[in-house]
Design brief:
This protein has about 400 residues and is α/β, with parallel strands linked by helices. It has 2 domains: about 15-260, Aspartate Aminotransferase, domain 2 (3-Layer(aba) Sandwich), CATH 3.40.640.10; about 265-390, Aspartate Aminotransferase, domain 1, CATH 3.90.1150.10. Helix content is about 40%, strand content about 15%.
């Protein structure tokens, strides 16, 4: 049994409304991709645009994971063998493994020492004649310097595909992530994200051609959705395979959960911001580097709260994690940089000294619990445990 006194690193916020929505789908007779999924796509697009589609329609493509979404997006923009994509080393492997699925190579770049986001200056140095796309990651829920990244992409004729797994509903320059001038943006609804469908993701794009390609490729390259074929009142059994696609569709069970979570997202981010502010105030006098907040006027999604030990800390990162564990508190590290992972290290001959900012951050960082069902008392326990080990 789970120890009720243990504070996990993350805990989903699921209520009766989500349970009722899933039960409704289970009783409906249709559980795979269908009306719930379409409604979820439409509602997320409306959430981002506020009902105003602006210069063009915003297309939402629901998928079974953000990894699937990134794969679909890269395939749709034409990434293939011989191409190269640029991404930060401080990310989860899913960001870049999808390029290898397509036979493309990866150029890893260092991060900004303050935000821990992809450093635009490092992008320029990594661009070659083979570069096809830039994959910025909005680390922890803080938007990247997208104005600089888009300017670089425009100068070199590159696509930008945003890994926004942490970033719903962050903003950048007053614009919601998902509405920026990128070829595609991919959100995650994994269990510990700012909202969840258990497993799942969504790709956002204003490019109708890219959206069409992704919709076909997410389900075996079939020209028609199963719901259209099986629910039509007239015979509609015929379909065509137009490409060797994938099995990346979202189920209606997951979409029903997501639709309820989306209605709660404003309260979720408000609670995350409140918890982050309390951490900021309570930890400010400790030998720590606290995470950067969003610039004035912008929104930090606060998926993660990542602290780093300062130079004058008298304990190591691992000692802090152990002390938290001894106090019944879960913690994690986001992430072991990709240049340290055997596959990426060995394939590209990478060394830690090539990534000084990410390397320094990695040696000192840990992620402490931040989730919407955390009670004030639980947060006080976490703060007290940190103060005890760091003072």
């Amino acid at each position: 049994m789970t120890d009720p006194a243990f504070i996990p690193f993350a805990r989903p916020d699921i209520g009766q409304a989500e349970i009722d929505a899933v039960a409704r789908v289970l009783r409906s007779g249709w559980m795979t991709t269908g009306p719930e999924t379409r409604a979820f796509e439409q509602e997320l697009a409306a959430f981002l645009t506020g009902g105003d589609t602006g210069a063009g329609e915003l297309h939402a493509i629901a998928v079974n994971s953000a990894t699937a979404g990134l794969h679909l997006a890269l395939e749709a923009i034409g990434v293939g063998p011989g191409d190269q994509v640029i991404a930060p080393t401080l990310t989860f492997t899913a960001t870049v493994e999808v390029a290898r699925y397509l036979g493309a190579d990866v150029a890893l770049a260092d991060v900004d020492p303050v935000t821990l986001n992809l450093d635009p200056a490092r992008i320029e140095a990594a661009i070659t004649a083979r570069t096809k796309a830039i994959l910025p990651v909005h680390y922890g829920g803080l938007a990247c310097d997208m104005a600089s990244i888009h300017a670089i992409a425009a100068r070199h004729g590159l696509h930008v595909v945003e890994d926004a797994a942490h970033a719903l509903p962050a903003t950048c320059g007053g614009v919601k992530v998902g509405l920026l001038a990128s070829s595609a943006t991919v959100f995650s609804f994994y269990a510990n994200k700012t909202m969840t469908t258990g497993e799942g993701g969504m790709v956002m794009t204003r490019d109708a051609a890219l959206a069409g390609r992704m919709r076909i490729m997410r389900l075996h390259g079939i020209s028609r959705d199963a719901f259209d074929r099986f629910q039509s009142r007239t015979p509609a059994w015929y379909y065509e395979i137009v490409a060797p696609g994938f099995k990346y569709n979202m189920t209606d069970i997951a979409a029903a959960l997501g639709r309820v979570q989306l209605t709660r997202l404003p309260e979720f981010v408000q609670r995350r911001q409140q918890l982050a502010r309390r951490y900021h105030a309570a930890l400010a006098d400790l030998p720590l580097i606290l995470p950067a907040d969003a610039p004035p006027g912008d929104v930090h999604a606060w998926h993660l709260y990542v602290i780093r030990l300062a130079d004058d800390a008298r304990v190591t990162r691992d000692e802090v994690i152990q002390a938290l564990s001894d106090a019944g508190i879960g913690a994690s590290v986001h992430y072991v940089p990709l240049h340290r992972q055997p596959y990426w290290r060995d394939r590209y001959g990478l060394k830690p000294e090539q990534f000084p900012m990410a390397e320094q951050a990695y040696q000192r960082m840990l992620s402490i619990p931040l989730f919407t069902t955390m009670s004030d008392a639980e947060q006080e326990r976490i703060i007290a445990a940190l103060r005890a080990v760091l003072r």
